[in-house]
Design brief:
This protein is mainly alpha-helical. The chain has one domain. It is about 35% helix and about 5% strand. The strands form two sheets. A three-stranded antiparallel beta sheet has the order 1-2-5. Strands 3-4 form a two-stranded antiparallel ribbon. α6 crosses α7. The termini are far apart.
């Protein structure tokens, strides 16, 4: 075979190799999707619809923004404008602080977003011998009820806004002034491990040497899966074997603060302020009372059906009675 023949044969092989990806691409076209026509297999909203899993927000939710959506979704029809509940429609009092302190934000999200009206009893850390394993498996169903699902009416951020607005009816977040007044105390007692920004990066954890690492208060999937009661218990009684000291009964003389039960509840709300905003964000300048209220949306649960009557556990050493669940 001459040199010219070998070159010609090589060019033919190269041309054939170049055609392969083109042929593969053409074979993938079935001809069923035409330009300008809608394809249900590609454009149907059901393809990308949430499947019921909890979707964490991209940034801190805003409780004040939630007040706007509370009005828009006509939640007051059953819950009442003040959250006390409307007789004959709903017996759940959103202003019951003892009740709301036992509820996880993640459970409330499931109720509002997907209509999963369930209430759980989650024991506090000190009631289970100082072991945190209960957090993943010891939620006990206490009550169930029906509730409309709003995942198709509100975006995930708006749903979280609504969750924390409802929570704020019972336990308001700290105002900026209240939080600023507590910065010195937090800095003197907590920031050495948790950092001034609550990110778990305090000077004692330089180089991330502490194991387990101090909690990052900005972590949604951790603190939205905690009740206020659990956070109170961690501060008051500490976490055995994890380096978290107990503060109940102690005193910060420099800042003139005694860590009694009421003040530890304030610290609990201070921690919540790291992952929830107490100011308008998406709805700046909006007057909640003027927001349109669509009719017939019925945003409140029907009367809850009791499943158990066992009282929720109370934090040890607390001066207040055990939280109520009915």
């Amino acid at each position: 075979m001459t040199r010219v023949e070998r070159k010609s044969k090589l060019r033919s092989k190269q041309a054939l190799l170049m055609l392969i990806p083109i042929l593969v691409g053409l074979s993938a076209c079935t001809g069923e999707v035409k330009v300008g026509e809608r394809s249900d297999s590609l454009a149907n909203p059901e393809v990308t619809k949430a499947d019921g899993r909890i979707i964490w927000p991209d940034s801190n939710p805003s409780a004040p923004d939630g007040s706007v959506y509370y009005k828009q979704m006509n939640c007051a029809e059953c819950h009442g404008a003040d959250g006390h509940g409307v007789a004959g429609k709903c017996d759940m009092d959103l202003t019951n602080v003892d009740l709301m302190r036992t509820r996880k934000p993640v459970h409330q999200y499931a109720t509002i977003a997907f209509g999963e009206g369930k209430m759980f009893k989650t024991p506090v850390l000190s009631s289970v011998g100082g072991s945190p394993e209960h957090l993943s498996h010891a939620d006990v169903l206490d009550r169930s009820f029906t509730h409309p699902a709003f995942s198709d009416k509100l975006q995930k951020r708006q749903l979280w806004d609504l969750v924390f607005y409802c929570r704020s009816m019972a336990a308001p977040l700290l105002t900026k002034k209240e939080a600023d007044d507590m910065k010195a105390l937090f800095g003197a007692n907590c920031a050495v491990c948790h950092g001034t920004r609550g990110a778990g990066d305090g000077p004692l954890n330089k180089g991330l040497v502490l194991q387990p690492a101090p909690a990052n208060f900005n972590q949604f999937n951790r603190f939205y899966d905690r009740t206020d009661e659990q956070i109170w218990d961690h501060i008051a009684n500490g976490i055995r074997w994890e380096g978290m000291p107990n503060f109940l009964g102690k005193e910060d003389k420099k800042n003139k603060v005694k860590f009694d039960p009421p003040y530890i509840w304030k610290l609990t709300q201070y921690i919540r302020n790291f992952h929830v905003l107490n100011e308008f964000e998406l709805e700046k300048g909006t007057d909640p009372s003027a927001a349109p209220a669509p009719t017939g949306t019925g945003a409140a649960p029907s009367t809850p059906t009791p499943q158990a009557n066992t009282p929720a556990p109370a934090p040890k050493n607390a001066d207040s009675p055990a939280p109520k669940t009915n």
